[in-house]
Specification:
The protein has a single domain, classed as Pectate Lyase C-like, CATH 2.160.20. It has no helix or strand. With 121 residues, the chain is low in regular secondary structure. The protein is globular, with a radius of gyration of 12 Å.
C-alpha cells in the first residue's frame, strides 16, 4: 500500500522528496516546491497544485485527474503515462516536459507553455 498524506502543504519545501506511490488525493499544495521530487505512481487526484514548482519532477504514471495545476512550473518534468484527465493546466509552464503517453482528455491547457515538450501522439 502507498504512503498516505492528507494534509495542508501550502508552500511546503518538498524538494527531492521521495513520494513514490504516495496517496495525495485532494492534497492542498499550492505554491509548494517539489523540484526534483520523485512522484511516480502517486495519486494526486483532485489535488491543488496551483503555482507549485515541479521542475524536473518524476511524475511517471501519476494520477493527476482533476488536479489544479494552473500556473504550475513543470519544466522538464517527466509526466510519461500520467493521467491528466480534466486537469487544469491553464498558464502552466510545461517547457521541455515529457508527456508521452499522458492522457490529456478534457485538460485545460489555455495559455500553457509547451515549447519543446514531448506531446502524446
Amino acid at each position: 500500500m502507498g504512503k498516505e498524506i492528507g494534509a495542508n502543504l501550502r508552500c511546503a519545501d518538498l524538494r527531492c522528496a521521495d513520494l513514490t506511490d504516495a496517496d495525495l488525493t485532494g492534497a492542498d499544495l499550492p505554491g509548494a516546491d517539489l523540484t526534483g521530487a520523485d512522484l511516480p505512481g502517486a495519486n494526486l487526484t483532485g489535488a491543488n497544485l496551483k503555482g507549485a514548482i515541479l521542475y524536473s519532477a518524476d511524475l511517471k504514471g501519476a494520477n493527476l485527474k482533476g488536479a489544479d495545476l494552473a500556473y504550475a512550473v513543470l519544466r522538464c518534468a517527466d509526466l510519461k503515462g500520467a493521467n491528466l484527465t480534466d486537469a487544469n493546466l491553464a498558464g502552466a509552464d510545461l517547457t521541455g516536459a515529457n508527456l508521452a503517453g499522458a492522457d490529456l482528455t478534457g485538460a485545460n491547457l489555455t495559455g500553457a507553455c509547451l515549447a519543446g515538450a514531448n506531446l502524446p501522439a
